[in-house]
Specification:
Number of helices of chain A: 25
Strand order of the largest sheet of chain A: 1-2-3
Strand content of chain A: under 5%
Helix content of chain B: over 70%
Oligomer: heterodimer
Largest sheet of chain A: 3 strands, mixed
Number of domains of chain B: 1
Radius of gyration of chain B: 16 Å
Order of helices and strands of chain A: EHHHEEHHHHHHHHHHHHHHHHHHHHHH
Distance between the termini of chain A: 101 Å
Largest sheet of chain B: none
Number of helices of chain B: 3
CATH topology of chain B: Helix Hairpins
Number of strands of chain A: 3
């Protein structure tokens, strides 16, 4: 394989001011949060403007970057000393970071625009846009920073934005709880990432990408494996990978644009970014790479299985997101051959999943915020634009030939197959399940007869919401083919992540590809039999043991509860008991003893002066006797 | 010679002490305290003579000064108590207790 290029210091041009990408949305968030109610009237417009401005800077930086010779496409821009002598903050513009920046600001801006319509009736719309801008700034810091500490700051920033936005409707106890759950589960992952960065610092004496990756070859393999596994723990938390997957499904309590932007298109893919960015470390630690692929495969199956049983349209999509990020994680664990597919799938997924989520939001908007698909049905005629765009997103995610998902997911499956047959076939099975649950979702929502609540009057959403859907669905159709055919994206990314010894060739008719298509078709047909042709009961049937298993998120919460929560509660209860009985008992007992003794002793104070005089005389006699005795010795 | 003085001093002190312990009338108790103080004075003066220096004499003067001051305060208290309670018995003045 061919390694990544060196980072070249850059001055001037758009790349020289690329920090504006981070600063503009941050400024927007600051104005909206500090300005308070005064900014209510135009706050959403400012939020959209800042996001769009950031997008413009990203596009200009991208144009400038591709104008440079390929070997010079990693540009570092120094900004300031963050921690003197330890961390020099800077921006790294290379093909990998600029791809993310374009996705974040591009899809982010579309979702900002969509939110104008979606949140139009919400009294706290300005605060919503402030948080969205805060998120965009933090996410851009995460991907653009040229060192791990900067990445960590962005990493925590997106975690904060995610927490604030999941709990945006804080008057709902379920939303508040979900926000806390997301925050706490992420803490476990962030702990791993923090320790990983500490180990990087003690091993390499630096946290900047250039020196660390340059010195990775000389480091001990055991240490590299430890670093890799710790970074993976961080990635698992942020990207909702098994075993830290449980927060993502609850995160759907947030407003739908948040689910689309943060919990589908961008933030949850930060883990994939971390693994790909740290490729130089993972490639030297095969054990860590193996664990990455295993986590990926387990999650892609777990997410898909969860997706099959959910009646809540957003939770179904959340399971699907987990599953698709599992694919990316799998590819990211396969080395340079997989990086391009991981990032390409990440970008196409960003488009079609944002499309699907915003579509779901449009449906909810039409159905009085109903999320239960059993109460949808036959919406095809009432929401034509939403239906058309959702259907395109659906075709893209199941990998319908020639749409985006077909190219990127097939690339991952082929690469995995090349690496290990087991991983490859499990990924094929995952694709088949995807075909089933996505078809189920489409049939339950748009086909069949009406199962609406009595007061539902579905209507198409306003243009400000449908246009982002249309743009995203265009991306969902063409982006995959553009990126994958002719290895365009792999060539583009090569300066940042290296390239494999031989470039893959895309086969339209390969065994795994055909097997995937066949399984997807079987899944879709099965979904048609159960949910398209047959009548869908409005109340969910009890279902078999397997259905319950999937409905309860593969007992993920139950496992967490019995493994961590209950023992934790026991530990705290024991601590409380020990504190109350042991420590408090000792202290209180001592005090009671002294009090009791004093109570008895004070009876001596009779108030009769003559008895005091007697005791004084007696005492004086004793002292005099003692003196005489000692004097005689 | 010295012994006689000291025996007299001890006798006076013992009489004073017993008086303080057994008598109830505050005036009498007070006088017994004076008796004890003067028994001490006698012992001091005796030793001063025996050793041929003035230390004991000086202390005796101090004791007299203190005793005079004590009389002033003590009698005032006794008179005040008598005025309010119509009694000078030390056993009746037993309010300051547990």
């Amino acid at each position: 394989m061919e390694p990544a290029e060196k980072i070249i210091q850059h001055a001037g041009g758009v790349i020289g001011v690329s920090w504006l990408m981070i600063a503009l949305p941050l400024l927007g968030a600051a104005i909206l949060l500090l300005g308070g109610r005064r900014t209510d009237r135009w706050g959403h417009l400012l939020g959209v403007a800042m996001s769009l401005a950031s997008f413009v800077v990203a596009v200009l930086a991208f144009v400038e970057l591709i104008g440079l010779p390929e070997a010079q496409r990693r540009r570092g821009v120094e900004l300031f000393q963050f921690i003197p002598g330890m961390v020099d903050m800077g921006v790294l513009i290379d093909p990998l970071s600029i791809s993310f920046a374009l996705l974040i600001t591009g899809v982010g801006s579309l979702i900002h625009i969509y939110s104008i319509g979606y949140m139009s009736h919400d009294p706290a719309r300005r605060r919503f846009f402030a948080y969205l801008n805060l998120f965009v700034a933090a996410m851009l810091l995460l991907v653009l920073a040229d060192n791990y500490v900067g990445l960590y700051v962005g990493w925590e920033g997106v975690g904060l934005a995610s927490y604030l936005l999941i709990g945006f409707w804080q008057q709902k106890p379920s939303a508040a709880t979900a926000a806390q759950k997301a925050f706490i589960v992420n803490r476990v992952g962030d702990f791993g990432l923090a320790i990983g960065i500490f180990v990087i610092w003690t091993t390499f004496g630096s946290v900047a990408y250039g020196p660390v990756f340059g010195a990775a070859g000389g480091a001990d393999q055991g240490v590299l494996t430890v670093i890799g596994l710790l970074l993976l723990l961080g990635a698992c938390g942020k990207s909702a990978q098994v075993p830290l997957q449980s927060w993502l499904l609850d995160a759907m309590e947030g407003p739908t644009p948040v689910s689309a932007l943060i919990h589908a298109a961008t933030m949850v893919t930060a883990g994939v970014y971390l693994v790909v960015r740290s490729g130089a470390i993972f490639e030297l630690a095969p054990t860590a790479q193996l664990v990455v692929t295993i986590v990926g495969v387990v999650t892609l199956l777990a997410g898909a299985i969860i997706g099959t049983a959910k009646d809540d349209i957003k939770k179904g999509l959340a399971g699907s997101t987990m599953s698709q990020i599992g694919y990316m994680m799998l590819a990211a664990g396969l080395g340079p051959a997989g990086y391009a597919f991981a990032i390409a799938h990440l970008i196409t997924h960003g488009f079609f999943k944002a499309n699907l989520f915003l579509g779901a939001g449009s449906i909810m908007h039409a159905m009085n915020d109903e999320v239960d698909m059993r109460k949808y049905g036959g919406l095809r005629k009432f929401l034509p634009v939403t239906f058309a765009t959702f259907f395109i997103g659906y075709l893209a995610i199941i990998g319908f030939p020639l749409l985006s998902g077909y190219f990127t997911k097939d690339g991952i499956i082929e690469t995995a197959m090349h690496h290990s047959a087991i991983l490859g076939w499990l990924a094929v099975v995952g694709a088949g399940i995807t075909g089933f649950y996505m078809s189920r979702m489409v049939f339950m929502t748009f086909f069949g007869e009406k199962r609406w609540a009595d007061d539902a009057h579905p209507h198409e959403s306003p243009a400000v919401m449908t246009w982002p859907l249309i743009i995203l669905s265009v991306g969902s159709i063409f982006l995959g083919g553009y990126l994958i055919l002719g290895n365009t994206f792999m060539q583009f990314l090569a300066p940042a992540v290296g390239r494999p010894a031989e470039l893959p060739v895309f086969h339209f008719f390969s065994v795994p590809g055909l097997a995937t298509l066949a399984l997807v078709a079987v899944g879709a047909a099965f979904a048609w039999m159960k949910y398209g042709r047959a009548q869908v009961p409005v109340v969910a049937p009890r279902g078999s043991f397997l259905t319950t298993f999937a409905r309860r998120d593969l007992y993920g919460d139950a496992i967490n509860e019995s493994l961590f929560m209950r023992p934790g509660q026991w530990a705290t209860r024991f601590a409380v008991f020990f504190d109350n009985r042991g420590i408090d008992g000792l202290v209180n007992g001592l005090a009671a003893m002294i009090g009791g003794t004093s109570g008895r002793l004070r009876r001596i104070q009779t108030g009769f002066a003559r008895s005091y005089a007697l005791s004084i005389l007696f005492g004086a006699a004793v002292v005099a006797g003692a003196l005489l005795l000692v004097g005689n010795l | 010679m010295t012994t006689h003085y000291l025996v007299l001093s001890a006798l006076l002190f013992a009489i004073g002490a017993v008086g303080v312990l057994v008598r109830r009338n505050a005036i009498v108790v007070f006088m017994c305290v004076e008796l004890m103080l003067n028994a001490c004075n006698l012992a001091f003066v005796t030793f001063a003579r025996q050793h041929g220096n003035l230390d004991g004499q000086i202390i005796a003067f101090f004791v007299m000064v203190v005793a005079a001051a004590e009389v002033v305060v003590g009698l005032a208290i006794i008179v005040t108590i008598f005025r309010t309670r119509r009694s000078a018995s030390v056993d009746d003045a037993n309010l300051l207790k547990y």
